[in-house]
Structure prediction request, 283 residues.
Amino acid sequence: MLQVENLCKAFDTFLLDGVSFTVPSGAIVGFIGQNGAGKTTTLKCIMRSVFPDSGRVTVDGKDMGENETECKKLISFSSGTFEYYRNKKLREIVAAVKPFYDNWSDGDFNRYCDRFNLDVNKRVKELSAGMKVKFSLALAMSHNAKVFIFDEPTSGLDPIARDELLDVFRDIVEDGDKSILFSTHITADLEKCADYVLFIKDGQIIVDSEKDALLDNYALIKGGADELTDELTRRLIAYKQHQFGYVALIARSKIRSTDKFVTEKPTLDDIMVYFNKRGQAQA
Prediction:
């Protein structure tokens, strides 16, 4: 549904370097990486609010550069909380927004308002941070888009509201003809709903995998300090040393029958932390 090919954008102090990935129909793709790694820049380049230096974005087979208006009608984009028109009532904002979308659905918007407990007679300034996020998402999900792109959509939401939103995400892709790409630093949300995971570091995609395969293909290992040999460290993604030994991430394909360490299944947090440490001086 969404295909990104060799996307590049150079700034004075940062380079988005050949980013490529696909968001299939019917899938939820989580986009992770530490702050400043390039998540938001990638999303802005896809939406052409920042123009890439090179690369190609296609939506449902259509080139974004050549068919920007048509492609953007297929995309729903939200970048977190809603902070505009603080003195306007929500219903006034909706009335101003919906003429821009050929496929706007009052029915969908009203259902999301009911689901999120949004009062359209309130003013933006009267909403909590979490309710502003919900309003932004209700707007984004009410014009029958095919591709949903969300930048930190669960930021500012309490655990119950986050879980509710993840249920909405699963409902969106259930029929198989829509897809979601969302960036987040809350990896526990991805473990609940994502089908695929992208991990970006220093402007480059370093992991692009099915979520379950990613978690199955790596192991967290623990052992004593004397077990951390040079031979072992060469097999590791990265490791941390502590007073009593070490903790490390390793590809299961690198584990040998003679190894004595204890293994555990990693979380996405573990994978992000250790891949981020890869190539750094160990401590």
Remarks:
- The first strand starts at residue 2 and ends at 10.
- Residues 225 and 243 are 8 Å apart (CA to CA).
- The longest helix spans residues 159-173.
